[in-house]
Amino acid sequence: MAPRRTRTVRLILAGLASAAIVLAAAWFAVDWIGERQSVSQADAHVQEIISLLDLTAMLDFHQRLDKVRTFINDNSVHKPDKAFWANHGNAASFAAGVIAHARQTAPEPIHMECSTRSNLMVRILRALGYRTRIVAIFDSRTNLRSHSFLEVMNPETGRWETQDADLDIYWRSKDSGERISLADAAESIADIEPCGRNACGWDHQSREGLKAEKLKPYLDIIGISDKRSGMSYALYTSRADLGWIYSKGRKRGAFCEVEAKRCQQGFYDIRKYSSYAAGLPR
């Protein structure tokens, strides 16, 4: 190829490369702006919910939590269908849908499930100044069927407490009646119980027919994610079958091999959890 033609080709290729870089930068900028707008919209909807429920005037900690949980549950429906997936990943859309149903401007409640209901509750509680963490529980004898909810730090006691907006329950100790962290107490199922709006007990059933009893097999492995501290770790109970091999996409192996993000700070025996307290957020 002649030198002049070679230079021309190189200039064209360089121009194409520069254009590609500019286009990529523009795409990332648009994506970043869109993400920021979505976050801003979600935050605005959260403030609207706080105002709608008059939460700043509600001083009792548990009353606040229960009000937020029941509000989300009443104004959404557990239905992970096509309509749900159309909003998946857009926190603002879910928050707007809950508000629309509460204000009776939408004929039907927005379709959500455990993680989206939990994430909206997390946003509301964080806006109120509470520390939260997400908990996922897994049935070790399936291909890791799971359920998720949130826990909030009680500022008066310094202890975590579970709130489940999907099943519309919190958890308590049978002996003391005190609210507890299901993540902390999962080993002793006989000593704890879920509580709905009017009664407590394993026979609790949400208004949508979701049964608390069905959570028992999921209390094998507990994944805990605390974004504030950047901690993510998992606990296993004596009921967990740690010999099972799981599949997730192209991954195949033990729990921490297919769920590595949940084991970043380790995988611990819950019966020895207290001995790890110095290194883990409680």
Give a structural overview.
The strands form three sheets. This protein has an eight-stranded mixed β-sheet with strand order 7-6-5-4-3-8-9-12. The chain is globular and about 90 Å long. 37% of the residues lie in helices and 21% in strands. The chain has two domains: 14-127, no CATH class; 131-282, no CATH class. With 282 residues, the protein is an alpha+beta fold. Residues 29-34 have low confidence and may be disordered. The protein has helices at 3-52, 61-74, 82-87, 91-102, 114-127, 182-185, 255-258, and strands at 76-78, 110-112, 132-139, 145-154, 159-164, 169-173, 192-195, 221-226, 231-236, 246-248, 251-253, 267-269.
Helix-strand sequence: HHEHHEHEEEEHEEEEEHE
Strand content: 15-25%
Q: Specify the helix fraction band.
A: 25-40%
Q: What oligomeric assembly is this protein in?
A: single chain
Alpha-carbon distance between the termini? 70 Å
Structural class: alpha+beta
In the predicted model, the low-confidence regions spanning at least 5 consecutive residues are 29-34
Tally of individual domains: 2
Q: What is the number of helices?
A: 7
The main sheet orders its strands as 7-6-5-4-3-8-9-12
Q: What overall form do the CA principal axes indicate?
A: globular
Largest sheet: 8 strands, mixed
Estimated radius of gyration: 23 Å
Overall number of strands:
12
